[in-house]
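Narrative summary of target 7.
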Amino acid sequence: MKNNKLVIYIGLLAVGLLLGWLLFGGSSKKEAEHDHNDVTETNQMWTCSMHPQIMQPEPGDCPICGMDLIPAESGSDGLLADQFKLTENAMALANIQTTLVGKGNVDGATLKLSGKIAENEESNAVQVSYFSGRIERLNISFTGEKVSKGQLLATIYSPELYAAQQELITAASLKETQPALYKAVRNKLKLWKLSENQINQIEETGKVKENFPVYATVSGTVSEKLVEQGDYVKQGQPLLKIANLNTVWANFDVYENQIDYFKIGQEVVVTTNAYDNKEFKGKVDFINPVLNTKTRTVTLRVVLNNNEDIFKPGMFVTANIDGMKNESKEVLTIPASAVLWTGERSVVYLKTNPDQPVFEIREVKLGNQIGNEYEVLEGLFIGNEIVTNGTFTVDAAAQLQGKKSMMNKGGGKTTIGHEGHLGMDSNASKKENNYANNNARLTVPEKFQEQLKVVYDDYINLKDALVKEDSKNTSVNATSLLNNLSKVDMKLLSDNNAHTHWMSLVSDIKSSATSISKTSDIKGQRDHFKHLSSHLINAVQLFGVKEKVYVEFCPMADNNNGAYWLSKEEKVINPYFGSAMLTCGEVKQIIE
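Modeled conformation, tokenized:
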């Protein structure tokens, strides 16, 4: 009996333990899972869309700007330390395009140079006065007037010449007894460019002329009037500059790494916007042996026939030079649009995964530029896939995700500093977060875009004034920009994200434009223009202006750190150097 009861007790105990485990074990597991989820949730970090360096373990307000914090991205998706990923939507909206690197045969390629028409100095002449006196009559009315050799230019009253004529008349009566004196007086008049006929006429008539004519010694076009009627002039003083425009010079800037492609006598095809469908042939006449240390270029001169008066001094022209050759014949080349410069380094962005938009920066060593291609000496291999359009946007994404970038060799969000992307300060760079982190253009009303375009047009006028080195109009256009900026209606932005970004950008645009408007120093204006361009680039990328916009870059601006600007045309006209280096730079991105 005892044994039976013992078995029964043991059985009941086992059943009780089983029931207890079934009833409470599952809930314990659920509780553990719940606790685990709580831990996971507590691992969620929160950041500010405007200040991504802010990281907090719970939601709240940004300690810098007071905005609501948003969930921070977590996980690396299996990417390496220097890699980052964009969305397919971002690739499409930013028009990011890639190209496979391959060997290109540069033999026979065409190299394009930009230049300007100038007067042929070998054919120019300065018309001078050969005696002192007062200009009684000036027969040239305006600059640009054409003159022919022997044409009457002016008449001059000269007391010295008046006295010399009287000496001639006196000496003529003594020529038999004092032939040496007579000859000396005649030679004196010849030195003043009086002809034999004029001297003989004075001698024969015995009459002194009060006013003497000045005749053109060459044919051409008056390029400059140096005197006016009634002016007193000295012997040898210039009266007019006369240019013979039957031939003109086309002066082109050639970078030092392109010099070995040119030689005297080489044929060049020249085109100009004034005559879209015409080509003009000329030959290289001169290559300056001295390098311009500021622009790192030499001047290449082409002589052009201008009998039909087609070319005007100051006109922009383009030279197309065919048959560029390289000793290696076959070289590794990449499009120029793929390259970003820091002043010291040349970098490209490599697409590391052919199936996913994963990128990383790659430093390259470049050779000569031939046409729109660069030779690659080190850093890339055949088959590599690189970004060739939208490189600027990819670089902004790298910076804002804390990866290595153009101006940030070490990576990290908080180390961008003043020499960040596009020469911006750190705050300006971080304010690109929508375009770089969210990877999409914001959707805004057309009316807002139209108002932004008015500001953009003022910016273009300001840029054009800098090209002309016109500090006064630069200030005027900066003031106009500020006025139209105040008219942009933020209430049109119903999207909170768009509203926040515009509020941030408008303060930076206002600050830079105000600085430009308050200074008359062209160098100072260009320094502020660098920052204004950075903010406008961000604004145009984020909101759009319903117009194709070109983002252009000069690697030598900002003390060789490089600087960007916006343009309505593809042709590069550099606002950072003006006439000193007008065509330095290239298009880095097209914002559709």
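Residues 27-42, 413-440 have pLDDT under 50 and may be disordered.
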